[in-house]
Amino acid sequence: MRILVTGATGFVGSHTALALRAAGHQVRLLIRSPVKLERVLALHGLSLKETFDNIVTGDVTDAQTVRKALEDCDGVVHTAAFVSTHKKDADKVISTNVGGTRNVIGQGCELGLKHLIHISSVAALYDPSLPVLTGDEPPADSDSAYGHSKAACEHYVRELQEQGYPVSIVYPASIIGPHDPGLSEPMNALRIFAARMGVVTSRGNQFIDVRDIADACVAIIEKLDGPERIPLGGHYYPWKSLIDTLYDLTGRRVPYAPIPGPLLRMMGKLGDYVIGFTGVDIPFTSEGMQYATRWVCTDDSKFENLLGLNFRDHRETLADSLHSLYKAGHIQRKHLGRLADRL
Question: Is 247 exposed, middle or buried (0-12, 13-18, 19+ CB in 10 A)?
């Protein structure tokens, strides 16, 4: 099958495009920058010339370009999104995320594509009052433009599902793994825990290997015909358990601070004020501290039962993520501890 992948210069998009190619599918990419794609592929030890030759250059906000990219495709995996909590970026967040989803998924439905995947986020479902997230929850409320954009996309894609279009929504939790083209928020958190210090507070978080998301996308295209909503939480770590696992892997102890959940949430509100007033990125936001202290686990049974897949070993995921952080220059060799022996 010929599958279009948007956002292929990103973390999920690049891994998904390569997984589809490895599975024998023809892959077309909609990207804004071939130069950036070349840099991303180099992380995998590949070159653009030998890997992809079916590329459309353009933006998901350009409906005409998107339609051209979708023509004669059997399916699409839409991973492109713009992530920002800055007020100055609000218009771009809405146009890219909501407008892009309407262009890609909406036009894909109009053209009769048989396999459509929208990569969302567990954040689109998050409700701290629930015992578990299954994918059937109503879209979550949010005060940020990014949160609003995710909810708007969720409403739109669910309407398409209700009309019978074969659109699957995938909800990853905190994504880590090898070959992150940037320094995503979960990978940055892992960097801090491994190299500086940890925080122990209420609850914990789920970390999903980016390669498991890519494998899920391949399985959805090959095995499913109808609409589905598939949470992908991955391995759940109470915060102290994450610190202990990193110690087991590296042999290095880092200091950690026990901080009550209410205090972290208060710090998150203060962080929102600082970001809004100064425009400086800091690792404390109200939304982020909610997730950190009041996490709700996902029901991942569809990944295993419906798609017939199993998650990678969580220790392998952490080890590969740390090696990737080192190779990108985000941590030093000493922070790997005994994992440095595998370089």
Answer: middle
- DSSP label of 312: P
Question: Residue 126 domain-assigned?
Answer: yes
43, 45, 155, 205, 278 from 225: Cα distances, Å: 33, 34, 21, 32, 48
278 burial class (0-12, 13-18, 19+ CB within 10 angstroms)?
exposed
For the cut 60, the answer to whether the pLDDT of residue 85 exceeds it is no
**Number of C-beta neighbours around residue 55 at 10 A:** 16
46 C-beta neighbours (distance < 10 Å), count:
16
Residue 67 belongs to some domain of the structure: yes
What are the φ and ψ backbone dihedral angles of 111, each rounded to 5 degrees?
A: -85, -5
Number of structural domains found in the chain: 1
Range of the domain at 144: 2-176+207-234+296-312
CATH number (domain holding residue 19): 3.40.50.720
Q: Indicate whether 244 belongs to any domain.
A: no
pLDDT by residue (tens digit) across 137-188? 999 877 666 677 788 899 999 999 999 999 999 999 999 999 999 999 899 9
**CA angle (208 as vertex; 275, 175 as ends), nearest 5:** 30
Contact 282/239 with Cβ under 8 angstroms? no
The first and second tokens of residue 23, run together, are 């599975």
209-220 pLDDT per residue, tens: 999 999 999 999
Taking the model in full, what pTM does it have? 0.95
Q: How far apart are CA 27 and CA 330, in angstroms?
A: 31
Asked whether residue 166 is assigned to any structural domain, the reply reads: yes
